[in-house]
Amino acid sequence: MDLDLAPEDEAFRDGARAWLAKHLPKTARRSRGGEPAGETPGDRLGALKAWQRTLYGAGYVALGWPREHGGRAGTPMQQTLLNEELVRARAPGLVGMMGVQMVGPTLIHWGTDVQRRRHLPKILTAEELWCQGYSEPGSGSDLASLKTTARRDGDEFVVNGQKIWTSNAQIADWMFCLVRTDPDAPKHGGISYLLIEMKTPGITVRPLIQMTKDAGFNEVFFDDVRVPVENVIGGLGNGWAVANTTLMHERNMLGSTTQTQSMFEGLLRVARSVTRDGRPASEHEAVRQRLAALKIQVEAMRLNAYRNLTATLKGRKPGIEASVTKLVTCELNHQIAATALELLGPYGALYRGSKHLVDDAFWPYEWMFSLGLIIGGGTAQIQKNIIAQRGLGLPRGKS
Amino acid sequence: MDFSLSSEQEQLRDQARDLLARECPTARVRKVMASDSGHDADLARVFAEAGWLGILVPEDLGGAGLSFLDAAVLAGELGRAVAPGPFLASSIGAVIALLHGGSRAQQRAWLPRIAAGEAIATVAVAEGPEPRFDGIGVKARARAAGSALRLDGVKLFVDGANVADLILAAFRTGARTGRGGASPGFEGTALFAVPRETAGVEVEPLVSVDETRRTCEVRFAGVRLPKGAALPHAGRALGRVLDGCAIAVAADCLGGAERALELAVEYVRAREQFGRPVGSFQAVQHMAAEAVALIEPARALLWYAAFVFDARPREAPLAAAMAKAACADVYAAVSRTAIEMFGGIGFTFENDMHLYFKRALANASAYGDSSFHRERVARLAGF
Questions:
Q1: Which uninterrupted H or E stretch holds B221?
Q2: Domain A130-237: CATH architecture, name and number where available
Q3: Interface test with A, best of B265, B285, B294 (most A CBs within 10 A)
Q4: B374 in contact with A at a CB cutoff of 8 Å?
Q5: For A275-287, how does the pLDDT look when each residue is reduced to its tens digit (9 = 90+)?
Q6: Pairing between strand B121-124 and B166-172?
Q7: Among A42, B190, B223, B282, which is 20 to 30 Å from B103 by CA?
Q8: CATH topology classification for A254-391
Q9: Is residue B166 classed as helix, strand or coil in its secondary structure?
Q10: Between the CA of residue A155 and those of A118, A229, A232, B369, what are the distances in Å?
Q11: What ipTM did this prediction achieve?
Q12: Do B3 and A289 touch (CB under 8 A)?
């Protein structure tokens, strides 16, 4: 055990902190309560792209990528420190996150030189934004049952089908997508990983309004969409393996616990400002017990992230840590928001546009949004299956 | 930054696990449970030879001189084995009290004997009717009687006092100034080294749901001690004892929770109903997965608390409070889930699961229950 940062890591963190203090525009900061990840309001698109360019110029985008692909070959430690500093400075989320965190690393791992040269530079500068085409109406947790087809026709595929829950499809330039290229192959074998340009004729994007009343995700329809054959990544029929690389990178996204910490700080502010019987709620024993219980969980997840990071640094193969983190953190976020709402009473139930609104409706928003994240990215129940089967070696049930 | 056990600590863990599997299977635990004293002198000798009883005792006083994180690793293994006896009271609680509060002479008199397994010591803080392990719990007073001291009062829930040679007993000598919770309120509290054979000391074991250890009532009636029996730095020591024991109990909890889950998982893999292993049913799998999701984050809190106890003592009270509340709650939840995974057989005395379930109950209130520690968290984190 050694909880001190190495001098070079400390210098890196101080450098990032100083740079953010100087370059992050005040107006670009998230509101005090924080701002949920995954939302990209259209009117802020230009500013968010400019912010990613600035960040990239300073070397703070794709820190962990190899240098030859435009990264900085930063260590996982530095990536974690940077994430912490970004949250601490209340920097907005990366608008090109899907590209930088998911498709970029997948291209580095599986792509050809031509594919990398075509896409990586524009991913880094947010010149092109990406969305993920995995889920379908009939294929959620059972992703490998997906039915969107890509039929070979000369040098092109003709894609037909539908994707759903596609975050940011309305602003994306490209989609990385799982399609069935061989209808006769076994379930996992006939799937390929395909890049599709969103302005291709035959694509229709229809926004789905979430319970938060935002249009963050979409349905995407493919009607005879023609895609060049060279847009397949990692070889025909190899899509399941390629997608797993992407998923691993998604699960590697550390820093989510930093977000949880800042939410808890927000909850403390609420508890101190709200009064009960004329005294701050934070002085009431029942409230203190709940706050402390949450604080303990937040700290546990913060420290556990360091434990997982150490395992990564030591080259240990990832196990079920990501599933535990996803399961616990998403639920914790939801509980923090629910506690804030309880403290706020009727004020907590007010929503955007109302008089007497608290924290710009951050709390009811986060309460709803965090429930979405409990379901999305592999439901809580699927995570429990993974923990039980891969972690504990319990036998799979009949399907 | 390296948030992991060192290879030496992993080795200590593995060796302890092997030794306990050999020397302290649950069959032996049950024999000790059924005995009057709840103490197995032969087993204690094995522990002494392994260097465990003096794990925190400095080498120049006959101990292993290891770190508190090492001791927590060992406590976790003893928890896994639901090991009987007063290890925690003697080798953690009393050793910390003597190390941080005792005079050099007191340390020399007792620490080598504790390490060698020649003496057992324990710490007596709590009293009825509101047992607490901080200074607020100490109401019994020590009075001057000529050139000597006189102790009168009743201490409760004193772990292993029935076999102890030395009782380190907290008595009030002055006014209490601090508040409970964050500041454990040990000002005005003194700690006395009382040999159990001293006239006026009476020990009565209580009957606990958890039979792996003996908790006792200790009555002090006109006990006369020389002034030199007081530990010179009691206030400082008692805070360290509270935190150290809380962390060690947390380690015991997590070790026990881990083992209970392992046994339950093993069982549901083999047990068949409806023509398939019950462990293939998602209802059962999700119980097990939820237990994992409780245990793993708590482990991070435990390691952190045990590490900062030595390395960053100022962070220890908050870290100890977090670890104790978390791990005790995890043990209660996981040992219960494990019994449900076993089903009916898990309710029998013959099956081992109740050993964990009951130890979880005793651990829950030892050195501060979860709400006590959550209130400490609230204060120390500045709510």
A1: strand B215-226
A2: Beta Barrel (2.40)
A3: B285
A4: yes
A5: 999 999 999 999 9
A6: parallel
A7: B223
A8: Butyryl-CoA Dehydrogenase, subunit A; domain 3 (1.20.140)
A9: strand
A10: 19, 5, 12, 70
A11: 0.96
A12: no
- State pLDDT tens for residues B7-53: 999 999 999 999 999 999 999 999 999 999 999 999 999 999 999 99
Residue B86 has pLDDT above 80, yes or no: yes
Q: For residues B2 and A53, give the distance between their C-alpha atoms in angstroms, rounded to a whole number.
A: 33
Whether this model's pTM surpasses 0.90: yes
pLDDT over threshold 50, residue A374: yes
From A252's Cα to the closest Cα of chain B, the distance in A is 17
Answer yes or no: A366 catalytic: no
Cα separation, A381 vs A327, in Å, equals 9
Whether residue A394 and residue B285 make contact (CB cut-off 8 A), yes or no, is yes
Reading the block at residue A281, the tokens are 């709620």
β A217-228/A203-208 pair status: antiparallel
B245: which 2 tokens?
A: 């024991």
The answer, yes or no, to whether residue A180 has pLDDT greater than 70, is yes
Catalytic pick among A127, A156, A250, A342: A250
The set of residues, in sequence order, having a beta carbon less than 8 Å from that of B87 and lying 6+ positions away, is B47, B52, B53, B75, B78
Domains of chain B: 7-120 (1.10.540.10), 122-233 (2.40.110.10), 236-380 (1.20.140.10)
The closest CB to that of B290, out of A268, A304, A384, belongs to: A384
Chain B from 280 to 319: CB within 8 A of any A CB: 280-282, 284-286, 288-290, 292-293, 296-301, 303-304, 307-308, 311-312
Average pLDDT over residues B177-204: 83
CATH no. of A7-95: 1.10.540
> What tens digit of pLDDT does each residue of B215-273 get?
999 999 999 999 899 999 998 899 999 999 999 999 999 999 999 999 999 999 999 99
Say if residue A38's pLDDT is above 80. no
In the structure, what pLDDT confidence band is assigned to residue B162 with cuts at 50, 70 and 90? Answer: very high
**Option in B3, B282, B289 nearest A307 (CB):** B3
A394: nearest CB among B5, B265, B371: B265
